[in-house]
Amino acid sequence: LCGITLKTHKMKKLLLSLLLMLVTLTVFSQEELKFSKVIQSETKADKKQLYAVLRSFVATYYHNSKEVIQMDDKDAGILICKATSVFNAPGMMLSAYDGWLDYNLKLQARDGRVRVEVFHFFHHNKPGNQAKAQLGVLTTAEEYTNTGMQKKYHKKIWKMLKKHAEDISNDIFVGAEEAIKENVVTDNQEEEW
Question: pTM for this structure?
Answer without folding.
Answer: 0.78
